[in-house]
Amino acid sequence: MFDYSLVGIVVILAGVALIFIATVATSKEEKDGSKVKAAGVVMIGPIPIIFGNDTKWVVVAIILAIVLLALGLLTNLR
Length: 78
Known about the structure:
Elements: H1 4-26, E1 39-44, E2 47-52, H2 55-77
Antiparallel strand pairs: 1-2
């Protein structure tokens, strides 16, 4: 049978690598004085914690949190 724990480990390592790459890519100082706009969602069980510094991206994060909640509910109903 296929070992799904290996898939989980690969996904976690890919996420850590993406965070590292994004941190390095955004750490360079912008010369034109532009500001970084960001938002994010932390899912703790069914409860989303949404944060951000730009209302447009916070709205996008809220929509993504709703999609994540719907996907979670759909997978638990099966």
